[in-house]
Every structure is written in structure tokens, then in C-alpha cells.
Amino acid sequence: ANKGADLLVDYTSGNFYATGILDVAEMSKFSTSACIGLPSGIKAGGNATYALSGKSGLTGLNVGASYAHGPLFASLTSASKFSSVTLGVVYKVNDDISLASLTT
């Protein structure tokens, strides 16, 4: 069986949220994420993973942001260390009809 032990930390202050996870059993990686919500309707965040053993270095890095105002919602996210980016948009015309688009 794969046994592990992680040390987790969460931090919150107002509209800011952050997490950190350290693999303390094998000391193999550290992962973190953070996001913030702004009064303008924008939310932005990101995550990163850093390998501590073997091939050490940054193994994951992604960011994202979204905007919501009235019937409009839009998001932009990266994946695989910025090797791809996805844009999503939704517009709610009324309770029965929404228009949506997702582009990578």
C-alpha cells in the first residue's frame, strides 16, 4: 500500500485564500495555491508544485482568472505550465436560454 504523510496549511485573510502541502513522508514535493476575489467581480488565482527530490524544480504552474457581472461570466485558465490556455464565456439571456463558448 502507498502510505504518505502530508503537512497542510491553509491561510485566509478577507478575500484572499492560500494553501500549502508538503510531503513530509518522502520529502518529494511542495504544492501551493492561492486565490483572491476582488469587489469588481474578478477572481484570480494560481497553483504551483515544486519537486524536492529526484528531478527537482518547478513541475507544475497554472493560473486562472474569472469575471462575473450580471448575466456575463468569463474565465481564462492555463494548464500544463502554460502549454495551453482555455477561455470560457457564458451569457445568460434569460432563465431558459444561456449562450456559452469554450475555446482552448
Count of β-strands = 8
Low-confidence stretches: none
Mean pLDDT: 92
Strand order of the largest sheet: 1-2-3-4-5-6-7-8
Radius of gyration from CA coordinates = 18 Å
Shape by Cα distribution: elongated
**How would you spell out the order of helices and strands?**
EEEEEEEE
Q: State which percent range the strand residues make up.
A: over 45%
Q: What percent of the residues sit in helical stretches (DSSP H or I)?
A: under 10%
Question: Main β-sheet, in a few words?
Answer: 8 strands, antiparallel
Coarse structural class? mainly beta
| Number of DSSP helical runs | 0
What does this structure look like?
The chain is an all-beta fold. The chain has no helices and 8 strands. It has strands spanning 6-13, 16-23, 29-37, 42-51, 57-69, 72-79, 84-92, 98-103. The protein has an 8-stranded antiparallel β-sheet, with no helix packed on it. A hairpin with a 2-residue loop joins strand 5 and strand 6. The chain is elongated. The termini are far apart. The model has no long low-confidence stretch (mean pLDDT 92).
